[in-house]
Amino acid sequence: MPGRFSIARLFGPSYSLRCVVFHDISASESPFTRGIGVSITPDKFEAALRFLTRYYTPVSLQEVLANCDGQGLPPRPLMVTFDDGYASVMEWAAPLCSKFGVPAVFFLNAAFLDNHRLAPDSLVCFVANVLGMETINAAVRIVKGADTPKLNCMAEVSSRFFPTISLAERGVFLDALAHLGRINEHQLAEEARLYITRKQLCELASLGFEIGNHTYTHVRCRSLTTGDLAEEVDRNKADLEAASGKKVRSFSVPYGSSKDLSRDLVAHLRLSGHEVAFLSESAANLRGANQFHFDRVAMQAANDGTLFFQIEVLPRLRATRNSFFRTRN
User: CA dist 204 to 40, 94, 101, 248, Å?
Assistant: First the structure.
C-alpha cells in the first residue's frame, strides 16, 4: 500500500486534506433510501474505518480550521463527515468512530429532528419505490405545467427538477406528492423514524462530535433568495446550537454541488459565523484550498483497493480536470 501512494501522486497535484462523507449506515435499504445511493452496510463501514485509520491520520474540524493551508496538519490528514442525520448514525457511526478514535462532523437538518417530517428526498424516494414515478411526474406537472418533460428516475428529481424551482414551489410539489399518494407525512415520518432526535443530537455533542449546518430543510441552495437564506441557514444554525449547546461553525452544501455554493451564499455564511463549507464532488483538496470550498469523497467502497482508488486516484484526476477547464475558461 505505501508504494501505491507514491504511484497515486503521478495522477495529480499534491493533496492537502482528504475529506470523506457517509450518510445512512444500514444492513439493508428501505423504501426511503432505495435507489439514491446513500446507504452502506455496517460491515463495510467498519472496514472503511479500519482502512482510513490504518493509512491516514483522522483530524478534527478544529485542527482543520487552525491549519486551513494544510501546512500544520499531520501526514495524510483525513476528515470524516456524515450528512442528513439518519438515525442509523447513532447505532453505528458514533460508536464505531469512538472505537477507532475518529473525530467526525455530523451535518444535520433541524426540521427533521424528532421525526415529525420527512426530508424531501426521503419522501420522493418512498413515493417512487412504492407508487412509481408517474405519481412524482403528476406532482411535477402541478408545479411546472402539463408540458413538462417526464422525469425517468429519482436522481432526475434532485438533478433536473429541484434546481429549477423556488423554495415555495418545492413546498407545492411536496404537498401535491403527499396528496396524490394519499400520504400522511407526519404519521409516516413517526413510523419510519429515519432521523436522530434532539436528545440524540445532545448525545452526539456530549461525545465530542462536531455538529454542522446542512440547511433547515435540505434544499438546493442555488434557488434560495436573500430571505430564504435566513430561513434555511440562520434558522438551522440557531436551532442546532440551541439543541446541542455547541457552536455550529461548519456548513455542508446539500447535494454537494459547487453550483449551489454561490458567492452570495458564501458571503452569508461568513457573516453568520460559519468558518468552513464542504461540497461533495469527490475532487482533491489541493494545498492552499479555499476553506469555503473543501471537497469530500462520497464513500461506497467494498474493499481496500476500491477505497484507495476512490480517495487517492479519482479525486486527483478530477482536480486536474477542473484546473484545466478553469485555465481554458
Answer: 20, 7, 14, 13
In the structure grid, which three cell numbers stand for residue 177, read together?
406528492
Decide if 201 contacts 234 (C-beta within 8 A).
no
Provide the grid cell at 21: 462523507
pLDDT computed for residue 13 by the predictor: 60
| Closest-CA residue to 296 (of 14, 20, 12) | 20
Q: 3-state DSSP call for residue 47?
A: helix
What is the Cα–Cα distance from 222 to 260, expressed in whole angstroms?
Answer: 4
Helix (H, G, I), strand (E, B) or coil at 40: strand
Name residues of the chain where pLDDT drops below 50.
Answer: 329
Distance CA 146, CA 212 (A): 40
List the one residue out of 286, 116, 276 whose CA is nearest residue 195. 116
With a CB cutoff of 8 Å and minimum separation 6, the contacts of 263 are: none
| C-alpha closest to that of 262 among 163, 161, 143, 158 | 163
What CATH number was assigned to the domain covering residues 2-115+194-328?
3.20.20.370
- Give Cβ neighbours of residue 116 (< 8 Å, ≥ 6 apart): 186, 189, 190
pLDDT at 124: 97
CB 120 within 8 A of CB 218: yes
**pLDDT value for 277:** 98
- Cα angle 268-209-301, degrees, rounded to a multiple of 5: 90
The conformation of residue 165, written as its DSSP 8-state character, comes to S
Per-residue pLDDT, 323: 72
Q: Which amino acid is at 198?
A: R
The torsion angles phi and psi of 4, rounded to 5 degrees, stand at -65, -35
C-alpha span between 320 and 215 (Å, rounded): 30
Residue at grid coordinates 449506515: 25
> What are the extents of the domains in the chain?
2-115+194-328, 120-189
What are the angstrom distances between the C-alpha of 29 and each of 40, 51, 61? 9, 24, 30
pTM over 0.70: yes
Q: Give the whole-angstrom CA distance, residue 67 versus residue 78.
A: 13
